[in-house]
Amino acid sequence: MSRSVVGKTLVIMAGGSLLLYLTIPLAVVIIQAIDAGLVEQLRQPTVAQAIKLSLVTTLISVLLMTVLGTPLAYWLARGHVVARPVIETLLDLPIVLPPAVAGLALLMTFGRRGVFGPVLTQLGLSLPFTTVAVVLAQTFVAAPFYIRSAQTGFASIPREIEEGASDLGANSWRVFRYVTFPLASPALLSGVILSGARALGEFGATILFAGNFIGRTQTMPLAIYQAMESDVGAALALAAVLVFISFGFLLILRWITRGRISHPLL
């Protein structure tokens, strides 16, 4: 009996210590941001621009991931895919790849001296250090979260349900629209939230490929990095905003899944 009590005490102490370690710094950020005048800091032009740019680029990135990633996820889940493990590994690679490597890879691919640089120059296009570069960087690092979640959702649907709809006369598009998509929508929405949260917090790939220009490429993480040198209050305000948004994302995700694991990385 005493051993059981000691074991439970040790578990509680270890778990509680880790819980405090993970939550106290975030609480400190929020408290310090309020003390520094959170509302007033958010009214600063550079802070407001960083928030607006982050939200707009994240929204565009999520739309791109949804439009382009949904067919890919469906193909991986329901099609006969040759070398599936290799393809899935390549798609998951940005998740574990250091962001700095991702940014360098994008720069060497789409930069002026990159592989496609001369072609883009002839077309009058310049991607690095632009808002488009921010979107590309966010999409590169966050797309795997959506694809894997969507793939899991499509794969979990019993084929008998789709076959039954086909037997009743529905064509492939109607089966997908009225059967497959509604059943997979919780997983798709989970993927949107996960990828959106990842895109919103992207730093390494963005600063290498897009730079840190106020109003053009400076997202909230980049603005925090720059503000730490001159305006800690602004950095705290932006950090608090990111904490609140991320917390909201996770609450929505928990509500959608309702205890179910709908993403392989959760």
Quick description:
Helices cover 78% and strands 0% of the residues. It is an all-alpha fold and 266 residues long.
Keywords:
266 residues, MetI-like fold, single chain, mainly alpha, globular
What does this entry look like structurally?
The chain has twelve helices and no strands. The chain is mainly α and 266 residues long. It has a single domain (9-257), classed as Orthogonal Bundle (MetI-like fold), CATH 1.10.3720.10. Helix 11 (220-227) packs antiparallel against helix 12 (232-257). The longest helix has 34 residues, at 2-35. It is globular, with a radius of gyration of 22 Å.
Write the layout of secondary structure elements.
Layout: H1 2-35, H2 38-42, H3 45-78, H4 84-96, H5 99-110, H6 117-122, H7 131-155, H8 159-167, H9 172-200, H10 204-209, H11 220-227, H12 232-257
Within CATH, the superfamily carries the name: MetI-like
Instruction: Give the CATH level 1 class.
Output: Mainly Alpha
Q: Alpha-carbon distance between the termini?
A: 36 Å
Q: Main sheet?
A: none
Shape: globular
CATH topology: MetI-like fold
| Proportion of residues in β-strands | under 5%
Rounded mean pLDDT score: 90
In total, the number of strands is 0
CATH architecture: Orthogonal Bundle
Assign the structural class, choosing from mainly alpha, mainly beta, alpha/beta, alpha+beta, or little secondary structure: mainly alpha
CA radius of gyration is 22 Å
Residues in helix, %: over 70%
How many structural domains in the coordinates? 1
Low-confidence stretches: 261-266
Please, how many helices? 12
- SSE string, helix = H, strand = E? HHHHHHHHHHHH
